[in-house]
Write a structure and sequence with these properties.
By secondary structure, the protein is α+β, with helices and mostly antiparallel strands. It has helices at about 1-20, 90-100, 145-150, 180-185; strands spanning about 50-55, 65, 70-75, 80, 110-115, 120-125, 135, 160-170, 170-175, 200.
Length: about 210
């Protein structure tokens, strides 16, 4: 009976796969970071961040709130305040306007804990890194800092054929980076600035 049921299940799945037409999904949307150079970096709030909102002389509406996956928070007075992609200062001014409906001239300060940031602000390393992962960007981060965070290269990596992918003016651009020269030969000239949203692709060597 069990074998017959398995056979029937396989038959049904095969029928579904044959009957369905194959379509190609569109490519992922390009999300450009607001940081265009190292000196212009400002931290942006993202899902998973813990946002501490302090309203002067109004402790009952102050508190710490975790940003939901949809980029919003809910406070004691206002539901669904969009916060993702804003700086703490921008959010403080926006909350002052919102609370102005309920309070007289509110003064708000916003601080952030558990820094995560939006995906568009994270640095992603894929391919032959020892520990491929997404990294929360830190001001003045360099390629060397990123490679230390991911544990360096695997023994199969072609570090000098790696690419850095960056969105500039809505266009995806690739830059050559020489990770092996940097890590194994100590060539500091191969160390370059990394910006929020950069993707580092490390291929496997052919031999």
């Amino acid at each position: 009976m069990i074998n017959k049921l398995k056979a029937l299940t396989i038959l049904v799945i095969g029928y579904i796969l044959v009957g369905c037409s194959t379509n190609t999904l569109p490519p992922a949307s390009l999300h450009q970071s607001t940081t265009v150079d190292v000196s212009s970096y400002k931290y942006l709030i993202g899902a998973g961040d813990a946002v501490n909102i302090f309203v002067w002389r109004n402790p009952e509406v102050s508190g710490t709130f975790v940003v939901r996956p949809d980029g919003m928070i809910t406070t004691s007075l206002v539901e669904d305040i969009p916060v993702s992609g804003k700086t703490p200062t921008e959010l403080a001014r926006e909350i002052e306007k919102i609370l102005g409906t309920y309070l007289r001239e509110p003064v708000v300060t916003v601080t952030v804990n558990n820094f995560v940031g939006p995906f568009s602000e994270q640095v992603r390393v894929i391919g032959e890194a020892a520990q491929p992962q997404s990294i929360s960007y830190v001001q003045n981060m360099t390629l060397l800092d990123v490679m230390i965070s991911v544990g360096g290269l695997t023994e199969f990596a072609d570090g000098n054929d790696a690419k850095l992918v960056r969105i500039e003016n809505g266009t995806q651009k690739q830059y050559d980076i020489y990770i092996e020269d940097l890590l194994k030969n100590g060539e500091i000239s191969a160390n370059v600035d990394v910006l929020p949203g950069d993707i580092i692709v490390i291929p496997e060597t052919w031999f």
